[in-house]
Input
Amino acid sequence: MNEELEAQAEITRLREALRREQRRNSDLITKREDLVRAVYQAASDGYLAIGKPPAVPKPRKDARPNGEEVALIHATDWQRGKETENYSSEICDARIELFVDKIQRITSLHRKIRPIRRAVVMDGGDMLENIHIFPGQEREVDSSAYGQLFGLVDLKKRFYRRLASDFEQVDVYDVEGNHGRIGRPAEWPRTDNLDLIATEITRRELASEKRIVWHPRKQWYQRFEIGAYVPMLVHGDQIKSFGGNLPSYGIVRRAIAWASGVVPNFTDLYMGHFHQIMRLPLPNGGTVFVTGSPESGNEYAREFIGGTGAPSQRLNFVDPEVGRLTAEYVIYLDEITDRDLKKGAQ
Output
């Protein structure tokens, strides 16, 4: 009986303690709510004292920069006339048409920001395959050297005419590649080259197109100015050895030598030849841009270089006033395949 009474008394004490704790919690909650209300009221009073902030101004209608950009197109290593399991003259032509399509579409986007009236084309050589660069090559082509030459001229004419329809001026700088040479290396003058012959025939064929301005090469490289930006164009066959390393090692080593005063100063160096896409920084702050080829299925690249690249060309944009690139694009062209051409023919 005593134990039950003690238990009942303990329960009563616990209930009283619980009620006291609940009252304390209720007081604390009330105090916190009062504090929160005080903070909100202080913020509101402060806002009223400061006043409403000024409205955000509308953007100026003339906020677009006035300076022009220049489209810089690197077209190289078309190898027109080469025939592999997935490349031919027809595929080359279709991929170059796609290249122009993409140049025009991308340029139209840039024109929403700045005017672009001029295009500069760097023709990097090896634009046809030829038939006597290495033993057995005549079995890896789809046309004779004569057919390749005039097929290339027709393609170049379409290429430049389409560009001239989209730009107020098209400047053309070209160098020759090793595939265009006539005879064995050093057997004939370097200027006796099918790349240079094709460009000269194209120039004469388009002589009436005054918006296309031709700048024939005077030596093994082309160095020119786009305002304060100075690109230098070579084909790339000048790099003969890699020092037991990847091609990038030999490329950078030779570029550093050229930049040391062997040739006049340049901002960036552009080359093809290796059928790979590379962007290699130089110690002087410049860049070597190695551009790919629209060709596919190149066994030489697989065997000798140990690599290959997707069919591609290059499009950059230049700010002539500042003297630097504003945008860089690798233009991939592998959407066009032999299957697509067969579908189109049907």
Summary: Residues 18 and 24 are 10 Å apart (CA to CA). The radius of gyration is 35 Å.
